[in-house]
Amino acid sequence: VALYDDNGISIDGAVEGWFGDDTPARFRACGWRVIGPIDGHDLAALDAAIASAKQPSGKPTLIVCRTTIGAGAPTRGGSAKAHGEPLGADEIAATRQALGWNHPPFEIPAEIRAQWDARASGARRQGEWQARFNAYRSEFPELAAEFERRMSGALPDDWQDLRASVLEQFAQATENVATRKASQQVLALLGPRLHELLGGSADLTGSNLTDFPDAGPRHIHYGVREFGMAAIMNGVALHGGWIPYGGTFLTFSDYSRNAIRMAALMKLRVVHVFTHDSIGLGEDGPTHQSVEHAASLRLIPNLEVWRPCDAAETALAWTAALDALHMPSALLLSRQALPAQTRSVEQTQAIARGGYVLSEPAGARATLLATGSEVGLAMRAQQLLAQQGIAVRVVSLPSVTRFDRQDAAYRATVLGTLPRIGVEAGVTRWWGQYGCVAALGVDSFGESAPAPAVFEYFGLTAAKLVETVRGVLDA
What are the annotated GO cellular component locations (predicted)? Predict the structure, then answer.
């Protein structure tokens, strides 16, 4: 039940003349039941409307309430001044007189307090509900325990084993695979075991790969509604009992951004699957090619951003997102296939810290910092430089937001003391915070062409990275 306060006033003044929406008709067209307009100051009319709205109809209900903003204020009522400005001492005194309100500020008369005090009735209703639930628990103990677990946000008792199994399986992956595909492979293992996973896509399931076998009603077709999807995910997370995730292209995160920010502010566990994360998208061109989006999302407080380079990092990103009870996560995934990297057990474990040394040859003269699809590029550049007698370290940073929370000693060890060069298929300015003396990236909008041609056009190649490193060392 939603009450629509239709007072005809905005901060800019009366809406007549520029707000021509037929709001009740719009809600009816969306399948809502609409009651009113009613007099929003008539308590009997409000009570009757709310009672009617509570009757089963199979639809949500909108109650249209015609009101006067600031009702009772002699000179401010019905005006924009009642919306965005304090009434002021004189108007407050006049309003008190007009309303016949003679009580001091913050004093609630006993008879009014008694009418609004719902503690006793609330305790009674809670007790009645608890009695019904206790009876349910007696008859269905396993289902009751599962309900309580899911509503608490705790993961299943076997989660640690499931997580370890998933991470072990993908740690050994050798296939070159797009990280969006790796994400789907992870979901294929997690979805059937974690019944609270509730996913979907904003009309891009075949591209985001957010489905899993036998998902059934646990996969939602949101349509082309990125913000709606993100907002619904927030609502589902606030309700509890589900872990929502949703997919779209990274560039369309702009449409979702306010809801993403609110999820971070409210500390909600939601997972945004953002695929086609760079100019590697290819032919769809600059409108669809993310450039500034990764750096921009990393600026949102309490949002964990992952940009994995292969299946092993993707699996870790997913499990970390599910572990993050009070934090939303954004998984930035590639359209194109990426090479699987070889790691020791220690390196695989270090993925969870958001950044780690992937390769450290003896006699290194510089450090390459890379994320996502550019980790493979950095490894190829390392090989080319080695052929020229120049050794360089390679650091993978799948989640700089998590890496930044590591202790200073660990971060210093990973970053090292050698000259640093950053590489990511996006804007380069943000590399300065890691002391990079040079960076390779994309500081303009993209172009429409096959992905390899776009990477070549923007100089995101191993040869160009070699040239950049040599320029730093020769300076």
Answer: cytosol
Domain boundaries along the sequence of the chain = 2-117, 120-152, 159-338, 352-474
Q: Do domains 159-338 and 352-474 have the same CATH topology?
A: yes
Q: Which residues lie below 8 Å from residue 255, measured CB to CB, with a gap of 6+?
A: 226, 227, 248
Q: How far apart are CA 307 and CA 397, in angstroms?
A: 8
Q: At what angle do helices 226-239 and 253-266 cross, to 10 degrees?
A: 20
pLDDT at 172 over 90: no
What count of other Cβ atoms lies within 10 Å of the Cβ of residue 147? 15
Active site residue 226: yes
Tens-digit pLDDT profile for residues 392-440: 999 999 999 999 999 999 999 999 999 999 999 999 999 999 999 999 9
Q: Which of 91, 196, 226, 374 is catalytic?
A: 226
The hierarchical CATH code for the domain 352-474 is 3.40.50.920
**Distance, CA of 215 to CA of 201 (rounded, Å):** 13
Strand partners, 133: none
**Could you give the CA distance from residue 357 to residue 420 in angstroms, rounded to a whole number?**
13
Q: What is the largest CA-CA distance in the chain?
A: 89
- Residue 124's alpha-carbon distances to 120, 129, 130, in angstroms, are 6, 9, 10
Name the nearest CA neighbour of 259 among 297, 230, 299: 230
CATH of 159-338, one of 3.40.50.150, 3.40.50.720, 3.40.50.970, 3.30.70.3490: 3.40.50.970
Find the helix or strand (DSSP H, E) in which 366 lies.
Answer: strand 366-370
